[in-house]
Amino acid sequence: MTAVNENTAVNAGDGAESDDEAKLQMIKGAAFLTTVASAGMIGGFGSTLALAKKKSPDWFSKGVAATAAAPESGASLALRALGWGSVYAWCGVGLLSVAVWKALGVHSLSEFKQKMQSFFPSIPRTEAAGSEPLDWNNVFKSK
């Protein structure tokens, strides 16, 4: 085998490894974003529920169980609304995505990326070499 053939074989192996690493990185990123989003939703729902219970415990306890005045409990009604809202949101985003996909006439994600890059201007990357690190205390300081 010549030196050129050996280098080509090594480069082909590097490409496969980089593809695997890229896929693994994408899976890790998706898992991280899913975890953060789920934790945020659970935290937001829990804090809202705790605030509602703290503000008016009598009304909160009345909304937990069904009564003669309200045949459906507040929790049941909220879960049903959340379910239908989620279905509508998923279907709406899916329909919008398919409509844009078909209107652009693309057949793969790479074609979609190229089409979007042709429509929108590129954002130049600037290096902030002389900038100092961000002081988070000043960012969250009340005015």
* Beta fraction: under 5%
Distance between the termini: 71 Å
Q: Averaging pLDDT over every residue, what do you get?
A: 80
Helix-strand category: mainly alpha
Please report the total strand number as a whole number: 0
The DSSP helix count reads 5
Q: Which radius of gyration do the C-alpha atoms yield?
A: 26 Å
Instruction: Spell out the helices and strands N to C.
Output: HHHHH
Which segments are poorly predicted (pLDDT under 50) over 5 or more consecutive residues? 6-10
Describe what this molecule looks like in 3D.
The protein has 143 residues and is mainly alpha-helical. The relative contact order is 0.03. Helix 1 crosses helix 2. It starts with a helix and ends with a helix. It has five helices and no strands.
Briefly characterize the structure.
With 143 residues, the chain is mainly α. The protein has helices at 3-55, 57-64, 74-104, 109-119, 136-139.
What is the topology?
Blueprint: H1 3-55, H2 57-64, H3 74-104, H4 109-119, H5 136-139
Helix pairs in contact: 1-2
Descriptive tags:
143 residues; extended; mainly alpha
